[in-house]
Each structure stands twice: as structure tokens, then as C-alpha cells.
Amino acid sequence: MTNGGVDRSVECTGSINAMIAAYECVHDGWGVAVLVGVPNKDDAFKTHPVNVLNERTLKGTFFGNYKPRSDLPLVVEKYMNKELELEKFVTHEVPFSEINKAFEIMLRGDGLRCVIRMEA
What is the second-level CATH architecture of the domain 8-65? Predict the structure, then answer.
């Protein structure tokens, strides 16, 4: 269908199988796979060594090219001006006393974002 593979692939789910598929579907010689999703802590990325030898490129990122010092004030400004809807990304909220629950949710891959509320 793609005559040897795609030029670029981006994986955003955190599924280890999707990550492997994203890498293995890029074209030999110039294909680039970018992994953005965060996998389960016990997952292992396994592919045949020939995929590396065929000059496919694998890149990963946690925050893209986001620069907190310069970009965070812009994000806060957009949020305060109601130009950015962050609430829709919050899937869980826990009080600080239950912070371990937030880590369990994250490690299971059950939530998008978890807000930890500081208790007064």
C-alpha cells in the first residue's frame, strides 16, 4: 500500500504494540518514527535487529520541543483567557493523602491526567 513503508509515523497512545508497529511501518533508509506515548513501566520495545540495520530512525519525546521557562507563561495566559480547555484532559482527581492512588492510575495506564489536590 505504501511501496515499502511510510516516510513518518507518530505514536501517541503509549501502547507498546502501537510503538513497535509505528517503528516497523516506516520506510527503510529514510523513515522516521516518533514515539510520544508513555508505555507501561514493564513494557519492552522489541523488534528485529534488521529494522535498525536498514537505517530506520526512531525518536522519542516526553514534551516535544516544549520549553517550560518560555512556553509555560503563554500556556497560563491562554488558559486564563479561556483559549485553552485543560479540564477536558483531567480524568482523575485525588487528594494529596492519596497520591499513591494517582501513581497506580498512571502505571496502569487508566488515566489521561490526574490532578493531585493539596489539602488545606
Answer: 3-Layer(aba) Sandwich (3.40)
Count how many Cα atoms sit within 13 Å of the Cα of residue 39 in the half-sphere of its side chain. 14
Residue 61 banded pLDDT, cuts 50, 70, 90 = confident
Threshold 0.90, pTM exceeds: no
As a whole number of angstroms, the distance between CA 89 and CA 69 comes to: 22
Grid coordinates of 91: 480524568
One-letter-per-residue 3-state SS of the chain? CCCCCECEEEECCCCHHHHHHHHHCECCCCCEEEECCCCCCCCCCCCCHHHHHCCCEEEECCCCCCCHHHHHHHHHHHHHCCCCCCHHHCCEEEEHHHHHHHHHHHHHCCCCCEEEECCC
pLDDT of the residue at 100: 94
Domain ranges of the chain: 8-65, 68-117
pLDDT digits (tens, 9 = 90+) for 47-59: 999 998 999 999 9
In one letter, which amino acid is 25? C
